[in-house]
Design the sequence.
């Protein structure tokens, strides 16, 4: 219909556009014809759909209304027509406006229509709404940009792509940082350049690519080489990239430097190995008493663990006088803080990390072994001394026992001739008794001497019994005061003979339970001692009784003894007085002390040289009972 | 315990010649008859042959060949000799040995003559 309004000259054009039925059915394109002045001549369904105008609204109107204000003002619509008239065709993608004023991204193609004479008759304009495509494209562009930025900014990983043949296609910051190449240097180069030469020659890169292509993915940890030739331990993931049709279009490669982790792992392994070596050495040292073997084992342990060529122990004061600088001190066992020597390790590369502390630990084990050897040596020396001393003591005890046995046997042997002697003398005495013979007095003297001999023998036997703790006590209740008076009476004559008057202070009665004969022996001993050493000075004897104990004090004013000797007088065969004419064997006080102590009592001597001596004896009154209590 | 018709005979058993003779001498001075034996075995031999048997035996303890306790055991097991009382004379002042010996008396060496005569007389009385 609309075409009827165009001039007949346009008819051939219209005839050309007899495809109107077809164009009309096209919905996705606005297809319409404008005359050389830009007046819309035709309108199809697509145009109506895209631009919003109906045919009746727009036919006869200028095509400029599809453009924005600014473009209209700048004459852009007619520039396009001029261009199309000149070039036959013009295409642009740009914003266009719908009837309702909204804009859409349009792909516009304007083609000039000329008649057979070449006269410009108009233009056919085909407009496509690209808004949706543009939106997708924009998203894709932004996404790609983000990806590019992201990949590009990753520094810790080398992220790059390879062509299917293994040439480098892309490069990121991380790749540059890790491998040292710039993108310009490396893109287009084959991936095998990142491998150690020997591996590259062996075709490792190609094998890995083939495996990734076959399995989609390949992963490994291995050595890689930087641009400068240095190596690093890398973790590599290689993934095949295929397009929708499944054709291999390349690979992505992610490489990470694991050197630090590998170093830490190796360090941990090293440390574990070192600790194990120290522990093994410690156990060996515990089981091995020989210091030399421990030292050899220590050297072996260091050599095997660290791979040091030259490992040794330099002992301080070594005459070779080698330099111990850098050596690890083995501390001396004497606690002086000085070094016994040094554990020296020579290795290239020099010791690093935990290695020095490992070597010091080994040196410390050696020091411990040294200390133990030192201690054991001291112990052995001490044991030797102890054995010697014990033997000496045993020998001394043996000698003492033998002497006691000898004294015992000798005493018995002495009694036999004494028996014969005494019987003969007593027999003789009887025969001449009353005869008035002067021989009678001499016989009495001889008999006194035999009795004295018999007493000495008795005392000797007492000593051996005391020494063998065989002193038997026969306790009974008696009056000590009365016994003391008797003994003192017996001593009056010898005391008078020695010009030592006896002053006695004794209570009426002092009863107690003691061994009567032994206590008598004690009284005799201390009194005879006082008379013997009294040097003609008065002697005082005093007995005091308390409820549960008695005290006997016998004091002379004689020669006395040095204060430091007072304890010794109670020992066997000790006699404080060196003066030859005093008789006795020095046993009396020894026996006295044992008897007193056997009763649970004490005896003490206070004396000074030249100032007399005082014996103080204290006895429990009921010694037997006291002892029983002590035992319970 | 006094033996009948022992005729003041006393057997001295001691290995020491001097002691044996000294004892014998003082006993003979006191009108006793002294028999001498130098050990237990010799003493047993004499006891089996000699008549009259002694009123008392003075027995030393430590002797060679047969000592005092061995002699005493043999004597006690012999019906004919069992009745003869024994006085122990010993250098050992060990009271328990005389108890075990079932002796009538114990005299410690050196022996006091008065004591010896007093005991001996006790077993010769009424003879």
Sequence:
């Amino acid at each position: 219909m609309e075409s009827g309004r165009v001039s007949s000259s346009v008819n051939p054009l219209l005839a050309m556009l007899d495809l109107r039925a077809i164009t009309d059915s096209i919905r996705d394109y606005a297809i319409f014809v404008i005359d050389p002045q830009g007046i819309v001549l035709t309108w199809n369904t697509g145009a109506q759909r895209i631009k919003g105008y109906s045919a009746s609204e727009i036919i006869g109107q200028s095509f400029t209304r599809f453009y924005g204000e600014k473009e209209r003002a700048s004459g852009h619509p007619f520039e396009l027509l001029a261009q199309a008239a000149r070039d036959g065709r013009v295409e642009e993608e740009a914003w266009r406006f719908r009837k309702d004023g909204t804009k859409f991204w349009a792909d516009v193609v304007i083609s000039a229509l000329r008649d057979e004479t070449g006269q410009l008759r108009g233009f056919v304009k085909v407009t496509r709404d690209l808004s949706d495509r543009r939106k997708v494209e924009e998203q894709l562009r932004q996404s790609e940009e983000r990806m590019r930025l992201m990949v590009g900014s990753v520094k810790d990983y080398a992220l790059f792509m390879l062509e299917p043949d293994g040439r480098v296609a892309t490069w990121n910051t991380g790749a540059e940082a890790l491998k040292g190449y710039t993108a310009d240097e490396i893109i287009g180069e084959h991936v095998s350049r990142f491998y150690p030469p020997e591996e590259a020659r062996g075709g490792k890169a190609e094998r890995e690519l083939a495996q990734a292509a076959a399995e989609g993915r390949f992963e490994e940890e291995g050595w890689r080489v930087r641009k400068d030739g240095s190596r690093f331990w890398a973790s590599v993931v290689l993934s095949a990239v295929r397009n929708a049709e499944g054709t291999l279009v390349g690979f992505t490669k992610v490489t990470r430097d694991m050197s630090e982790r590998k170093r830490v792992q190796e360090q941990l392994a090293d440390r574990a190995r070192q600790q194990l070596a120290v522990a093994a050495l410690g156990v060996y040292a515990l089981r091995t008493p020989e210091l030399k073997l421990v030292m050899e084992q220590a050297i072996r342990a260091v050599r095997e663990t660290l791979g040091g060529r030259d490992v040794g122990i330099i002992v301080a004061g070594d005459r070779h006088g080698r330099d111990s600088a850098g050596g690890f001190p083995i501390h001396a066992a004497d606690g002086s803080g000085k070094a016994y020597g040094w554990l020296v390790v020579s290795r290239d590369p020099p010791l690093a990390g935990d290695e020095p502390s490992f070597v010091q630990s080994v040196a410390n084990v050696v020091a411990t072994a040294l200390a133990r050897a030192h201690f054991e040596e001291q112990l052995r020396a001490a044991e030797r001394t102890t054995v010697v001393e014990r033997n000496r003591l045993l020998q001394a005890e043996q000698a003492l026992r033998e002497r006691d046995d000898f004294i015992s046997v000798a005493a018995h042997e002495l009694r036999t001739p004494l028996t014969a002697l005494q019987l003969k003398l007593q027999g003789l005495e009887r025969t001449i008794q009353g005869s008035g013979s002067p021989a009678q007095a001499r016989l009495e003297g001889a008999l006194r001497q035999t009795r004295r001999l018999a007493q000495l023998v008795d005392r000797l036997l007492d000593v051996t019994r005391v020494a063998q703790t065989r002193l038997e006590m026969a306790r009974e209740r008696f009056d000590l005061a009365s016994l003391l008076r008797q003994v003192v009476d017996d001593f009056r004559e010898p005391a008078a003979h020695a010009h030592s008057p006896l002053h006695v202070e004794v209570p009426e009665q002092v009863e107690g339970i003691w061994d009567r004969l032994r206590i008598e022996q004690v009284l005799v001993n201390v009194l005879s001692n006082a008379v013997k050493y009294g040097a003609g000075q008065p002697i005082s004897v005093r007995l005091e009784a308390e409820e549960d104990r008695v005290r006997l004090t016998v004091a002379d004013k004689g020669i006395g003894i040095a204060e430091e000797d007072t304890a010794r007088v109670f020992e066997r065969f000790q006699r404080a007085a060196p003066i030859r004419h005093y008789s006795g064997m020095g046993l009396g006080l020894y026996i006295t002390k044992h008897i007193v102590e056997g009763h649970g009592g004490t005896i003490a001597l206070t004396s000074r040289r030249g100032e007399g001596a005082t014996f103080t004896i204290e006895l429990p009154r009921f010694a037997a009972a006291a002892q029983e209590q002590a035992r319970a | 315990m006094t033996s009948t018709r022992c005729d003041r005979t006393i057997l001295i058993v001691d290995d020491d010649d001097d002691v044996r003779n000294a004892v014998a001498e003082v006993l003979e001075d006191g009108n006793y008859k002294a028999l001498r034996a130098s050990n237990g075995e010799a003493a047993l031999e004499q006891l089996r042959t000699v008549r009259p048997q002694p009123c008392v035996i003075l027995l030393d303890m430590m002797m060679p060949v047969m000592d005092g306790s061995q002699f005493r055991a043999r004597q006690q097991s012999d019906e004919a000799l069992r009745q003869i009382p024994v006085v122990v004379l010993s250098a050992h002042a060990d009271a328990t040995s005389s108890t075990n010996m079932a002796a009538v008396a114990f005299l410690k060496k050196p022996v006091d003559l008065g004591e010896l005569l007093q005991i001996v007389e006790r077993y010769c009385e009424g003879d």
